[in-house]
């Protein structure tokens, strides 16, 4: 029967002849190059050889480099394996890489995890976790002591009063607050130590020497130098003072009752010391101990210049600085101790101070005698609210 050998309807599923059930695209990735053909162990006979003898097999063994050496042929066969993947078609893959590659990667991953875990255990035992230091700001603790004179308060001109008193050698204003040499500490540089000292000096000037602060006109310059966590306590102490050891105005600044006294000389005399201590790796503390001598007179324009008198205040402050305070130019006040006289022991020390002026006497006194110019620590009278002012601290008679 003449015509095409294919069925009338064509090959099933469009597969090429000789490949039933397989599409032509499926076999396109399989390429038999020249090296593959030479490596074949069987060779197909030619058409002439097959016609010469009907009993002749269609193929014969092909001699090659492994001919006569079965061991070498087996080694070559073992080097490769034929992997058939339904999704990835046919591939010739090296047996060693395919088998050992994933195992080597897994082994490296396990060793890496074990190394990291061991390092974490070692660091945890050698350097145990330490919580950061608690740098919460504490409320200021205040101690106020009134110093009562034993007789009438001496009067005179401001210059004469200073000359006849221990304040004669004191320097006026900010020049009397001298800074010690700044030396670096274990965790703070020389510059940071100097910054702490400078802030302490600024606070002393604004709170003890600034005329606007002394007369009650303004508290803003002092407020700007205080740690924000203490501002609520500061505002309460200024606006609603109380003798509770926390909210006395005198703990933060020196203020005179403007209805009772005013400055007779703006050049307040002062002398004292500043000391720096590193209390922790993150905190510096500055301790200040200064004595201030104020020339006061009664308010009013018609006051006689000879009616001035001296009022002495000794302040001991402990100021704390962390690194944020140094950067923001502010301080945390830890403790404040103030001795002030001449005053009456019955005077209210929680708010503005009411000094005894020239010619006035105290109504009550209390022992023992206290000299605010003496080098002894002021903490010796910290538990008393009133003491007797030493006569040696008053101006001598002319």
From TrEMBL:
Residues 389-398 have a biased composition (Polar residues). The chain crosses the membrane at residues 104-123. Keywords: Membrane, Transmembrane, Transmembrane helix. Residues 50-72 have a biased composition (Basic and acidic residues). The keyword Transmembrane helix applies. Residues 1-21, 362-388 have a biased composition (Low complexity). The keyword Transmembrane applies. Residues 1-25, 43-72, 359-398 are annotated as: Disordered. This is Uncharacterized protein. It comes from Streptomyces thermolilacinus SPC6.
């Amino acid at each position: 029967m003449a015509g095409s050998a294919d069925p009338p309807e064509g090959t099933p599923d469009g597969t090429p002849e000789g490949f039933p059930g397989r599409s032509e695209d499926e076999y396109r990735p399989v390429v038999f190059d020249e090296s593959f053909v030479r490596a074949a162990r069987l060779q197909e006979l030619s058409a002439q050889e097959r016609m010469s003898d009907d009993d002749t097999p269609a193929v014969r063994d092909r001699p090659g480099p492994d001919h006569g050496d079965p061991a070498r042929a087996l080694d070559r066969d073992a080097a490769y394996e034929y992997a058939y993947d339904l999704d990835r078609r046919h591939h010739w893959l090296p047996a060693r890489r395919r088998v050992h590659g994933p195992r080597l990667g897994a082994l490296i991953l396990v060793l890496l995890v074990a190394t990291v875990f061991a390092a974490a255990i070692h660091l945890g035992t050698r350097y145990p976790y330490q919580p950061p230091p608690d740098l919460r700001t504490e409320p200021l603790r205040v101690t106020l002591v009134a110093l009562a004179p034993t007789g009438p308060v001496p009067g005179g001109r401001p210059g004469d009063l200073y000359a006849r008193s221990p304040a004669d050698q004191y320097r006026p204003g900010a020049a009397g607050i001298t800074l010690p040499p700044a030396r670096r500490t274990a965790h703070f540089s020389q510059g940071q130590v100097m910054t702490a000292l400078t802030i302490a000096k600024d606070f002393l000037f604004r709170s003890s020497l600034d005329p606007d602060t002394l007369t009650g006109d303004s508290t803003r310059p002092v407020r700007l130098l205080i740690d924000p966590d203490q501002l609520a306590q500061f505002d309460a102490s200024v606006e609603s003072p109380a003798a509770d050891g926390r909210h006395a105005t005198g703990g933060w600044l020196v203020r005179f009752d403007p209805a009772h006294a005013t400055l007779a000389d703006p050049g307040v005399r002062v002398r004292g010391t500043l000391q720096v201590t590193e209390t922790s790796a993150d905190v510096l503390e500055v301790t200040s101990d200064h004595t201030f001598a104020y020339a006061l007179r009664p308010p009013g324009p018609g006051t006689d210049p000879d009616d001035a008198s001296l009022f002495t205040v000794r302040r001991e402050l402990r100021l704390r600085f962390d690194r944020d305070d140094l950067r923001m130019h502010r301080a945390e006040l830890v403790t404040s101790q103030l001795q002030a006289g001449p005053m009456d022991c019955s005077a209210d020390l929680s708010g503005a101070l009411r000094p005894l002026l020239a010619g006035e006497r105290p109504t009550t006194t209390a022992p023992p005698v206290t000299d605010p110019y003496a080098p002894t620590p002021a903490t010796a009278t910290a538990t008393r609210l009133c003491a007797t002012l030493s006569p040696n601290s008053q101006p001598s008679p002319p």
